[in-house]
Write a structure and sequence with these properties.
MAPEG-like_dom_sf, elongated, Four Helix Bundle (Hemerythrin (Met), subunit A), transmembrane, transmembrane helix, Membr-assoc_MAPEG, membrane
């Protein structure tokens, strides 16, 4: 498996871990009865549960673009040391993003997000060159 595909698989596992953290904190906040209910009324999460929910949503958004980058690199047979480094940088940024969001590291949360985003864009650009 290519480094880029390995990182994509690890990023998917990170998303699963983030979902588990978010689920546990949201259930703790609203209670199991509300969490298991039909959710006819929107539940607004606050504090750590809300931050983990937003970090998870952000990962969904970033993972779409990163997946496109990996597909372009992989199917275009454009994998290089540079694209592998970009992929690993993306994953490290995503791992760091979770505590940065949860603990409110300002401005580092935004800097970490930008590093991951830039890594993804550079991967796509490297495939086109």
């Amino acid at each position: 498996m290519t480094p880029e595909l390995t990182v994509l698989a690890l990023a998917a596992l990170l998303q699963g871990l983030q979902f588990s953290l978010y689920s546990a904190t949201s259930i703790a906040q609203v209670g199991p009865e509300k969490a298991a209910g039909p959710r006819d009324n929107k539940i607004e999460l606050t504090g750590g549960a809300g931050r983990l929910q937003r970090a998870l949503t952000n990962h969904f958004e970033g993972l779409i673009l990163f997946t496109i980058a990996v597909v372009v690199i992989s199917l275009g047979d454009k994998g290089t040391g540079f694209s592998a480094t970009c992929a690993w940088t993306y994953l490290i940024a995503r791992v760091l993003y979770v505590p940065a969001y949860y603990f409110g590291w300002v401005p580092w949360r935004s800097v970490i997000w930008f590093v991951g985003f830039l890594s993804t864009i550079l991967m796509i650009l490297s495939a086109l060159i």
